[in-house]
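Lab notebook, bench 4. Still working through the backlog of constructs that have no structural model yet. Next entry is a single chain of 339 residues. Request: give me the structure tokens for it.
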Amino acid sequence: MNKIICLFFILFFSAIYAQKSDTLVLKNNDVIIGEIKSMNKGILQIETDYSKDDFKLEWKHVKNISSTRTHIITLSSGALLNGTISKSKTPNKCEIKDIETQTKTEVSLTDIVYIKPVDDSFWDRLDASFDVGIKLTKAENLQQLTINANLGYTAKRWFATGTYKQIQSVQDDSDPIRRIDTDLSYVHLLAKDYFIPLSVTTLSNTEQDIALRIISKAGYGKYILHDNKKYWGVASGLSFNHERYTGVSDANKSLELFLGTDFNLYDLGDFSIQSKVTVFPSLTENKRVRTDFNLDTKYDLPLDFFIKLSFVYNYDNKPKNNAPKDDYVFQTTFGWKLD
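Model written out:
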């Protein structure tokens, strides 16, 4: 009986250890044993038995890494690898063993820009954030509410995001102001840092008399820069614009070309900056051009809280219904993220 009990405890603790078998060696020779959750944008997240919350550390401080679990790994060259990770005899490098071909590839740690375990659960692959801003003034009884919600899901070869942004303002002796933006996007990753973007976005904006604008996009893109400090991607394709203006019963439909760029800088300590610019020259409306610009600056706080400064600008050189050609929103919000 005692032998059976001993065998039980050996198997039990062996199973626990197997679940926490990922090992990190830092450049100061500290060793961390746990379960790697992800490495993205230069930040590695690992769960350990001796910490209530996951550790988050900068990838540039890691000297060695090993894991018997299968991971999706992206290199700065755009190569996509699927396998286990083991230490290399060469400093600041590791070996990745492909689970299908069983071949080993030695790569530099600085060339790795993304790591994600394949056996992650649904919740491990989910990212979410929510922030809100409120402004109340006695003068002219101004009441303003800003809401932003973001949801993301990352799989082996693709990721999807959904966003909802609303700003609403009420003031004495002035018409109410309301603007609602939504975005549902899907990006399929290809070899050599190419990707296929698909998205559906909507806009409702009282400033430009837009009751509802729906834009469906499909294209092809590439990451020009992709490392642990920044990424820069460009994309082009076709979009279909279906819009209806306030006070106008008939909807306006047009086919457009889109040219977009997305730049994200995140090696700034607790700061991160992301900017997006998309130009829509119309293919069916003579000389009509629209432009959308977004800039988000975020400062991370303890306990996954953050402060965000955002700027959004829309331009249309040929608006309908004699509406203004442009509109912009500048906002400061406080929020919380789940990752």
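Notes after review: Residues 7-19 have pLDDT under 50 and may be disordered. The first helix runs from residue 2 to 19. Flag for follow-up if needed.
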